[in-house]
Amino acid sequence: MENTNIVNIVNFIRAVEPRFREEPDLFEPVRREMELAKQHALPATWLLQYDALVKGPYVDFLKREMPESHEAGCWFEVVEELAEAAGIRWRGRWSWDWNVEVGFSIGYTPRERERLADAYVARFAELFGRPPASVGSWCFDAHLFNYLHEKYGIAAGCNCKDQYGTDGYTLWGGYWANAYYPSRKNAYLPAQSEAMQIPVPVFRMLGSDPLYQYSAGVAGNGQPVITLEPVYEGIGGGSREWVDWFLRENFGDGPHFALSYAQAGQENSFGWERIGRGLPYQFRELARLRDAGKIRVETLEASGRWFRGRYPVTPVSAVVTLDDWKKENRAGIWYLSRFCRVNLFRDADRGLVIRDWQLFRESYAEPFLEQACPSNVCCYDALPLVDGNLWNPSAIRFPGGPGTFESVEDAGNERMRIVWKSDAGGRTVILLGPESVEIEFPAEGEALLFDCNVRGAEYHRTAIFHRDGALRYRHCGEDYGFRAEKGSIVRDGGREFAFRLAADGRKLVLAAE
Q1: What is the count of structural domains for the chain?
Q2: Do 263 and 343 belong to one domain?
Q3: CATH of residue 68
């Protein structure tokens, strides 16, 4: 049976780091990461920012030291040298400026993005003998990504995890983990049809904590980071206990459908003193799991070509987390299709809730598809139906209070069957499908309760209406909603924004539209 537990080690390289009073040694992390990869015979992907192509020891080092199982690729952020090579006036505060309107592709017109891509690929091909096959960025746009596909034949991309406001940019509501084919109108969201997709998979970076990253509060500079990045000590990739838990849960026995994926590695900007506290342990564990046949470790390019050869459209995948590293009795399931994402979450006090439900629509264009972003902030999002963080305390709550996931199984045809056992007695069967949520209650007359913080939704640009027995939404000019194909949606008593999603007999079927 084919192993679909996949890890990419992605180390990206900058030649300048102006954020610190004293710039760290940027070459030492690259050298040490290479030593670790060779020591454990782990393939790695090295993504170079343009400044690292034209100055510093990085290119010569990689060409001399990379084993055949490694690859060099493109980290696409705009730096002064790249802008100059493309004949574009540099607007940054320093030679690399991380502000959105300067450092990311969306800060430039579509034609300027093409010039930047041409300048990058020309220099890369001159140095490495071919265009890059893998392209990564915290945030890139559909125009650039499709241009790199059509002109240069890239095989894979990677972008940042979901996060709210961190470093000025928001990615919120997309395909939570693993990989998807982006829409030609929106690089952040999967397309629903083959005709509308860019046929190059995008892999989600950093290995987010599937229980706690989503609900992490929003601080002054955005959300806290709980990921596999080794520089975060005590929580996340710098904690051995957390790493053990993450690898065990992410690649565990629960149904993952198409694949289970994680990205390890680190940007060199943090310096080896911080990276080196956690990365060696991660590499040892990845090698151990590889040797045990639990995962396969390969380059981003290899994963992209495998994905493209296997899936004509974005497949269903899932992240099943039944153990809580905090020991606070939480558990969760992320079910991801090209039509939507749904997050079932066991809260220690409330029991089972639908914490998050986002609709994907290939016609929903990203905000700067055809024009440049004028400011140092941007937001890429989906069409929210339930948002337990931004609309806190919104959630769709199951009856019966606390309980446990009794079973989580692949039900065939890309459907997941979940049995929830309530401590109060009774079993609820939940069937998650690519376009619907089906629920069979243990008794007739039961209902889900949707408490919606409508003011929180309105603050985040979403209007919600109860109309003709359905919930209708308007978000950023898009009209959508969900209805009960079996059952009903009615107000809960006199409360204006609380709704009973009531079963017909014992069955309730909800579908987004």
Answers
A1: 2
A2: no
A3: 3.20.20.510
The label of the residue with tokens 């890429």 reads 380
**Residue 213 near residue 159, CB atoms below 8 Å:** no
Query: Which run of H or E residues covers position 6?
Result: strand 5-13
**Token match 């969900």: residue?**
482
What mean pLDDT do residues 316-345 have? 97
DSSP one-letter string for 466-499? EETTEEEEEETTEEEEEEEEESEEEE-TT-TTEE
Alpha-carbon dihedral of residues 345, 346, 347, 348, nearest 10 degrees?
-160
What's the mean pLDDT when you consider all of the chain? 95
pLDDT value for 119: 98
Q: Residue 49 sits in which domain range?
A: 5-206+259-270+297-307
Integer Cα distance of 224 and 228 in angstroms: 13
Is residue 286, in this structure, part of any structural domain at all? no
Q: Does residue 331 share a domain with residue 266? A: no
The whole-number pLDDT of residue 145 equals 98
Q: Does 466 lie in the same domain as 356? A: yes
User: Is the pLDDT reported for residue 235 higher than 90?
Assistant: no
Strand ranges (E), 99-241: 134-136, 156-159, 169-172, 179-180, 182-183, 186-190, 202-204
The pTM of this model reads 0.96
